[in-house]
Amino acid sequence: MIVYAIGFVIGNGLKEFFGAVSALLLGMGMIGWGLFFLFGKLWKSTADAAYAFGVAGAEIASSTRKGPFIIGDVAIGTVLALTGAEGHIVGYLGLLGVLNPGTPRRGRG
Q: Does the pTM exceed 0.70?
């Protein structure tokens, strides 16, 4: 458990560091270096998400191979990014809230 916590702190810290440095460099007009650090931030985030999708997909399909699921995840994510799916995230989260409202609350009695 301690190893996971340390890994999360280091990994997430690097991700945030890369994001902050890229924003600073882009603001200073250093576009090349800013994009380099932004790529590092996105690589860290995307690699974790793709691996998690691969593990989950392999587990659901009772497969020992994660590779096809990781490739599928990257393809789906790329298509969604190119089609502008992020513009619909608020509506999607609202739909999730309607479909899965959470634990019902009991009245005070």
A: no
Phi and psi at residue 32, to the nearest 5°: -60, -50
Report the interhelical angle of 31-60 vs 67-82 (nearest 10°): 130
- Other beta carbons within 10 angstroms of residue 72's beta carbon come to 14
Cβ atoms of residues 58 and 69 within 8 Å: yes
| Helix, strand or coil, per DSSP, at residue 30 | coil
d(CA 29, CA 34): 8
pLDDT less than 50: residues of the chain: none
86: enclosing H helix or E strand: none
